[in-house]
Amino acid sequence: MPAPFGHKNRVLRAGPPASGNFRMARDLALNVSVGIIAAVTICVAASQASDVFAPLALASFIIALVWPLQSWLRARMPALLALAITMTVTVAVCIAFASLVVWGFGRVGVSLIADSARYQALYERAIDWLDDRGVSVAGLWSEHFNVGWLVQWAGQITGRINTTLSFWLIALLYVILGLMEVDDLRRRAKTFLRPETSRILLQGSAATAVKLRKYMEVRTLMSLATGVLVGAFAWLAGLPFALEWGVIAFALNYIPFIGPFVATLFPTLLAMTQFATWEAVVGVFVCLNIIQFVVGSYIEPRVSGAMLAMSPTVVLLAVFLWTYLWGLFGAFIGVPIVIAIVTFCAYHPSSRWIADLLGGPMEKEALVNSWVEPPSSSRA
Asked: What is the pTM of this model?
């Protein structure tokens, strides 16, 4: 029996949507492949040209933090005087933070060196305990950790200090030039770029700066809380240098995951020479990790809110990826870089899925409510 005329029409009309779906899937697969290749290329370039891109990333981060101060001062005094005051404040904060870190680590380091005999005795007891159970590490230790290794390690530290000073000088030079050209770059973007591209660049940059300032505000508050709690616990537990441990915990908390772990490891090493039982040492380590966990995993997400919502897996990946690319500085700047990527992706329809995927369940709503400029402000 022949099919009705309407059925034939329905079959004919079903063809184009299937073809369109196939084309959309093919385009999506192509875009994802190109995106992965571009991301790998960018990572390789960032690693190979770290001397150029790492100071630039730090300078951009500092500019985002100090721009409100610079803008407020420029409205009340000449531009060069405002720039001089902003840079003086920036350098003073950096020097004060570095001096605090050096003081804390220096005091603790002197103590650890003074207790080297105790650590040697602990090492010998551990070696004997392992030898009794058929595990020999004495040969491995003498092969890799000898006087030559110590001299080489000291030389690497000296070279790293010199490199760090050069790194900061280059970054501060970028900051000076960047603060002088912010308004000029904004005018050029509006004049020479297409309206949609200009909107994404300007609104994305402003939103990224807001999020980075919020990130540093939350990170500073949580670092202060962590430092106070760690210092108080060290004082109650009878550990020497309670104030220094609080300062070290405060400084290292700016580096997600890695910093808090190191901040719990050093006091545990000191506890090994102060307490007679291993139970007390393990108790110190566990209590310090509980402090870090409560502050970092319970209090901080509630303080930062939806604006900084990101998957913990993404944060951990960012820390380790940028640590691999740029070393210790990469561990610090990795999360701000991901924040910038997520923010810019949210401002273009073709990349908004990346922001929804990486930014957490409330990311899109937070962006719409906080950063999309109303028509009146756009016309102004």
From this structure: 0.77
